[in-house]
Amino acid sequence: MEVRSKVWLEARGRPVLGPGRLQLLQHIDKQGSISRAANMLKMTYRKAWGQVRAMEAQLDQPLVEKQAGGSGGGGARLTPQARELLAKYFRLAQGIEEEVDRRFREIFL
Q1: What mean pLDDT value characterizes the chain?
Q2: How far apart are CA 13 and CA 75, in angstroms?
Q3: Domain spans, the chain
Q4: Low-confidence ranges of the chain (pLDDT < 70)
Q5: CATH 1.10.10.10 fits 18-108, yes or no
């Protein structure tokens, strides 16, 4: 038997950041593009951009900076606020996972 848990953050009663949106931001960071990130996650650009806008609205801060396209195309990158949010999320999630594992062993094993 194993224990599983998921961590997500909410603002004003609405989900802001969880595993799916975390992946989206990570792919935007790695790919430098919302479109390429969306393709990797098998979602439309519209859905990916909608999720980014929803996070930004709920947090009232920018998370992704878009660069206008040109001959080389556009791009996107995470803002310092987004990087800080991801770092804090990872710290929180790791601590919760460690505590859940500890409690599971204590109670079930």
Answers
A1: 95
A2: 31
A3: 18-108
A4: 70-72
A5: yes
